[in-house]
Amino acid sequence: MSPYELRPSGCTPFEEELIDAMNNFAHSTNAPAFDTAGMVHRTRRRRTTLIAGFAAALIVAGGGTALASMTGASQTPAKPAATTVDHNRATFLLGGLTKEPIAVDLTGMDLATAKGQFLKAQLKLGTIVKVTSPGCKPTSVVEVIPHSPKIVSKGDTVNVKLCAG
What keywords would UniProt list here (predicted)? Predict the structure, then answer.
């Protein structure tokens, strides 16, 4: 019988040796161990961290936009009122947006502009009263109640006093 003739098993000696070598290799190596629970936990933690990072970035970007619009950075500044008007009485502190409350000064603004600021801050406009105050521009904001150092939050009502002239 020649070395390349078929054996009773139906394989050549080379094929039999190859099959034996593959079987030995397959049975001798350990199967890899996968920590599927750990992989799932890491994936979820990474996903959560990524989502939290994006949410924080959006909040910071949105908060920055809200701060810029609340302070009137995009608007032309109103002419300052005369020195007899107390800025602290026409300023309210808006809380709940950032760690520290944001001071919003309405001194010298007309009623329409003040209403716009209240809408942006999601505050309710309460009573509007005209008072006489020396050295103020007629129909401009002289005082808001509550004013600083009290803090107002979203949904609170703010009363306004306007200059009668």
Answer: Membrane, Transmembrane, Transmembrane helix
DSSP state letter for 110 = B
- 119-136 pLDDT, tens digit per residue, is 888 888 888 888 887 778
- CB neighbourhood size of 53 (10 A): 10
What pTM, to 2 d.p., does this model score? 0.47
Q: How far apart are CA 28 and CA 159, in angstroms?
A: 84
Inter-helix orientation angle 36-70/111-120, to 10°: 170
Would you report the helix, strand and coil content of the chain in percent, each value rounded to 5? Answer: 40, 20, 40
Instruction: For domain 76-163, give its CATH number from 3.90.76.10, 3.40.980.20, 3.40.50.970, 3.30.10.20.
Output: 3.30.10.20
Sheet of 91-94, strand order = 102-105, 91-94, 151-152
pLDDT of residue 92: 78
